[in-house]
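Journal club prep — side note

Before the paper discussion, L.F. wants everyone to see what a predicted structure for a comparable chain looks like in token form. Sequence:
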Amino acid sequence: MAESELATRLAVFLTEDDRAGHRSLYEALLKLAREQGVAGATVWRGVEGFGPAGVVRTSRFPDAASGLPIMLEIIDSAEKVDDFLDSLERLAPGTFVTRERVTFSRCPKQV
């Protein structure tokens, strides 16, 4: 059985339209996470969603499919996540995030 470890999972909620200069905000944040040595990060594209303004963004209508939901998920130690959050606040203040303690394990390799 694999050993379990404690970590922190950070979910950063964005849209495809969010920018950091001339590039997508999610791309800039993913690059930042890698530069800061975060253990792992994944960008998820949503097919439909809405935020505080209540505007539904959907892929059901290809002509209107702009600004679809994007979520950047990061898992690492609480300290690494704190460091990343400090950088996130400087780059994109007001961004909605969730943070939770998680237990993770690696499945044993099959021989």
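L.F.'s comment for the group: The first strand starts at residue 4 and ends at 15. Keep this in mind when we get to the figures.
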